[in-house]
Automatic annotation (TrEMBL):
Record keyword Secreted present: no
Protein name: Centromere protein W
InterPro entries: CENP-W, CENP-W/WIP1, Histone-fold
Subcellular location as annotated: Chromosome, Centromere, Kinetochore; Nucleus
Organism name: Microcaecilia unicolor
Gene: CENPW
Length: 76
């Protein structure tokens, strides 16, 4: 099953958490893209960690091991 995030839903979540911000028209697309890029970086780092640990699959331990370093690299 594919899950699609509606643009209006994403905009309403952003407005709920930061109501004082004025949002540009395509800010929801940029937030969605940023999320996808972060998940891709996390998956690549976890895959590298899994290979280093001689594992053929990515396990939760591999993700938790690289989460902190990926978050530091993703700070803007």
């Amino acid at each position: 099953m594919k899950w699609k995030a509606r643009r209006s839903t994403l905009r309403s979540v952003i407005r709920k958490h930061k109501p004082q911000l004025r949002l540009a028209t395509n800010v929801d697309l940029l937030v969605h893209l940023n999320c996808l890029l972060f998940l891709q970086r996390l998956a690549q780092a976890a895959r590298t960690n899994a290979i280093e640990m001689k594992s053929s699959t990515i396990k939760p331990a591999h993700i938790t091991a690289v989460t902190k370093s990926v978050l530091k690299k993703s700070r803007g």
